[in-house]
Design goal:
With about 200 residues, the protein is of the alpha+beta class. Helix content is about 25%, strand content about 35%. The longest helix has 16 residues, at about 155-170.
């Protein structure tokens, strides 16, 4: 394991996060880069998961032309929406701004950010007809964190920013006054889901 990647992983493991976040390492994808490390996290309120996601750290010591760097962060975040929020045509743009805003609010430099915001609706029939229609939002994104003087990005801060995104999409208020804002702009959060998510 290259020293730069080892230090980046150690920083991820030592990051201090909000108490609502439950996080565990998980098996990373095998073919995206020579070295990879991944975590799964959920925003938990009692027995209810308000949002969940996965963050993958990729490393190629030789660099990657598409990344414009040697490290890359890849994420999937998802949460269930209230019907009134799902009807907002600007919601995909707002959710994407939450990701970039979470990074910028922590003063993090990054490049080559790209991704998708997807909404999917479910309506229930027959034996499931008593369940309310549900809409899930899903953010898939990746970005290149800028490397520090030792060639290692501040992965702990990137993980904290990613958890800020998870909490925001779950409908939780910022942990600190002003957290999650960009250039003094106000924060709009999704309302918390009313009932537990069911498979």
């Amino acid at each position: 394991m290259p020293p730069a990647f080892r230090r980046a992983v150690e920083a991820l493991r030592s990051a201090r996060l909000r108490s609502e976040i439950e996080i565990d390492p998980t098996r990373p994808p095998q073919r995206l880069a020579p070295y990879a490390y991944a975590v799964e996290a959920a925003v938990v309120d009692g027995e209810e998961d308000l949002a969940d996601g996965r963050l993958v750290l990729l490393h190629d010591p030789d660099g990657h032309e598409a990344w414009k760097g040697t490290f890359r962060l890849v994420t999937l975040v998802r949460a269930e929406l209230e019907p009134e929020m799902a009807a907002d045509p600007l919601l995909p743009e707002v959710c994407w701004s939450w990701l970039t805003g979470a990074l910028e609010a922590r003063g993090l430099s990054y490049e080559e950010a790209s991704g998708t915001v997807t909404m999917a609706g479910s309506h229930y029939f027959g034996g499931l007809a008593d369940r309310r229609p549900a809409t899930q939002i899903e953010i898939r994104a990746s970005w290149t964190p800028r490397e520090g003087p030792a060639g290692v990005p501040d992965t702990a801060a990137h993980l904290a920013a990613w958890c800020d995104l998870l909490c925001q999409i779950a409908g939780l208020p910022p942990a600190d006054p002003g957290a999650g804002t960009v250039a003094g702009a106000g924060v709009v959060s999704l309302p918390q889901r009313r009932g537990p998510q069911q498979a």
